[in-house]
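Shall we go through a protein fold together, starting from nothing but its sequence? Please make up or recall a protein chain and show it to me in full. Go ahead whenever you are ready, and we will take it from there.
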Amino acid sequence: MNEAPNQRHWLFTFVSLATIWGSSFWLLGMASAELGPWTTAWLRVSLAGLILLPLVLWRGQGALLLRHARTLMVVGLLNSGLPFALYGYALMQMSTGLAAILNSLAPLFGALVGWLWFKDPLSRWRFAGLLLGFAGAALLALNAPGGVSLRPGGSGWAVLACLGATLSYGISGNITQRQLKTMPPMVIAAGTQLGAAILLATPGLMLWPEHNAGLSAWLALGAVSLFCTSVAYILFFGLIQRMGSNAAMTVTYVTPVFATTLGVVALGETFSMAMLGCAAIILLGTALATGLLGPRRS
């Protein structure tokens, strides 16, 4: 009787998360341009952790937070701190649409990490999906402004930063599914942000900008901390518990649509047919690699 409403609830959660994260690229880029990527990442997770911690304590879940502090800290670094800093750096050199498309590789890396590290079975179709997805990423990088040059001004370092972030997401998703599967999403969200804040405190303070950031940067930081981090991670960890890490990370399929639309409409960015074709290849490969497409048995 309740199955249909429950499915609609999770579909609404999925779309809401894609919308929120689609806007995060724009906000993160605005904040990082003035505060720097490492300081922005540290302030983002710190503010998010401070927002979520009182809710955890009010629910009487503080002991659970302390009991799993080590795992939460590791997941926080891999799922928040490091990717936020890497994307902050990348968005200073590339468009929000391009960064969002590369972000859609997260489920691909999740499947790869699950296969190599956790020995999850990988059929021939899923392996073909891995190859196809990474081929799409390579084509996308070749069509990026500046190519894949690692010299100053080229987008090579920005592309590598995005790939490093998606690999980090893939690792953290697998750890979350296996070690934090029964933990309340609120506790995971708060613990990971606080853990990331502790680990990023040193680079965040050492690289604090010498100039005063403008009001727009601080407003962007507040929005990305409250909505794109605090609220988003409660939704995301709930999806992992409901759907599994690989299925939950497919939210990155939809995120580029919102990020690219916002970039074109609000920021005047361009979106070429080549980018669209590469995005289609990446999404097809990811769908195969995660088992969403292809025969059930190989």
Remarks:
- The CA atoms of residues 31 and 219 lie 8 Å apart.
- The first helix runs from residue 3 to 35.
- The chain has a mean pLDDT of 86.
- Residues 16-289 form one domain.
